[in-house]
Structure prediction request, 741 residues.
Amino acid sequence: MGEINGHAILFLFFGILTCLFSLAVVFSSNVVRMAFYLILALAATSGLHFLAGADFVGAMQLVLYVGGTLVLLVFGVMLTAQNPFISLRTAGGDWVVAAMVGGILLVILIPVAFQVGLPPTEASQLGGRADREAVTSTDPVSVPTATRIGLGLLGVPGDDVSGYLLPFEIISIHLLVVLVGAAYLARAKRRVTVRDTPGTADV
Amino acid sequence: MSQFLINQLGLYPLLVQALMAMLTASLILGVIAGGSVVFIWMERKVAGRIQDRLGPTRVGGKFGWLQTLADGIKLLAKEDLRPEGADALLFRIAPYVAFCASYGSFIALPFATGWVGLDINVAVFFVVAVLGLEVFGVILAGYASASKWSLFGAMREAAQVISYEVPLGLCVVIPVMIAGTMDLTKIANLQAGWFTNWYLFHDPFAFIAFFVYYTCALASVNRAPFDLAEAESELVAGFHTEYSGLRWSFFFMAEYGSMFLVSALGSILFLGGWNGPIPLAEWVFGQHASGLSGFAFVVANLLGLTVFMSKAVLCVTVMMWIRWTFPRLRIDQVITTCWKYCTPISAVMFVGVINWQLLGLPNGSDLLPHHQLGVRQLPGAVREGAFGKNQLMPQAQSRDEKSARHKEALPAPLHAVSDRGES
Amino acid sequence: MTEILTSPVGLTHYLVVGAVMFVSGVVCMATKRNALGVLMGIELVLNGANLNFVAFGSNFLERNPTYQLGLDGQIISLFVIVLAAAEAAVALAIVLNFYNNHLTVDVDRADELRG
Prediction:
């Protein structure tokens, strides 16, 4: 003890960034800024994934979430960001209800987090010495998870992973269906009723 | 070195780690900054020669070496303008977002065996992922400028980048599949030896895949003929219409940084990285750089670094050549190129390479008898599966034994899966 | 205060960050009137949950070994990421359709099905 560890510093950095930007998403009323804060929050989350030794998931988060989903989202924001919609005001009552729900959730979740995440007791340490040693290994990033995850997805059960071939196939089909569906929904259509609203001509 | 500092000088380990990190970071920054200085000068020269001019000739002596520096000083002196009605925060931050993305992806890019900012096991993925974030800088800049030219440029950029990431990813996966690992250092060292070991010559499908990769890379870094985001004939200057001075130059640095990055990535994935057309280091030192140590290792790595840089710079030069040769595409043509040509072609190449591997057809490295000297004897390049049978089919064991065994398996240098049986 | 810097990072740290993200997401979903804002809330909620999966599956965190998810946690979070991408695509298509038909993205105005 007494020694400051780098892991904790990095965790604090990314963790605080994540929390701050998540809150910024909530309290910002400009939808474009919200999107920007969301990007930063999710990028910081991928940093947390790297710190937890989940390098493949972290990279995946960057590729798919930040690089794919959020670009799509920002694209949508820009398509619909006509002046009146950039900042829609929230009614006061909504804030009260939301704050109550959020507060209650926090009050439930945070104690649970402290309860579940308690450091191992003496008794449990006997059963889990290997894990204790794993904690002290200092280089989370170099542990290869990608190969084991890949094998897991192909249905080869590994050390600490079970086979996931069926969910993998289901999710593939699901993605295909979604792709077709989204393309069908968003395809160019003539607007049925033409309304004369200024500022929509070049959309 | 960090061990030396900790043990001999008795420095605080955390401080040493931070120092090393800063050293690495500033080295990478130097590569980007120095790279863009050289590339901007080169771009002017190449453009000049292609258009039958001389390009810069005066600043700094014979070839106008210092032209970029002069440009830089001019940019520093310019006023930093912000249009009225712009979103101040986003407008200010956008250039740095673009630059950080370009800079961040250099972290995982190896320059020679072991010379890498951070040796990530999923380096290929990481580089592509972080590079993809550059688009946010452009989008934010376009939106925050409160100018319709900027907004149009940004929209085009978003559509283009999202589309081109699909074929780009498919092409990147092909060498990964041949190598069986996503670690860039290992991928490059698997191609050691003669140039026939390069994945470019692995099989005809991989050969085509390289050119599809190059096209998509061109599009994903916004270079002509895909530079729709800044089409000056229609959109003034696209997303950076409203930028001036230092902020504008950050966009420029980001662009040249990512040009170099995709070229370097391409040369690692397909052109053998730091492993030259001829196995020079093997002739001089008797073995590959990854098997050497001490002074010989540094010299061999410097050789490799030179080779690697030449390949990457060559790719960048070709990008410039393309820029000043081809006319710009229309946006619908850009999207058509992606979805109707690049994506299907890369998908077919992907399937082709799978089947090539599956059928065990002869690949490029079988062309030369030096094959045996090359790939298979390298310490870092063993093709036998790193996964022993016991790892693939675990017996029923308790968690403890498993994780203990897992920890033993960790130090093994390779985690490549064998994709073809060794006879 | 220095204790947080000197003690090893544990499961609790991750769970707290995950909880903050989750709650932010819920509040965001409840308060935003812009359809895309609601979508962003959903992304936050999913990410908070994802962080928990990764944390439970990690070998590098100080925690009680009873709760060991192993690599399964990472695979589940991969599935969540993929599903989130799919969900965002469909939701965006719906929002754009709504915008095309009603020229607004205010979710409070999407009340045509009310009897």
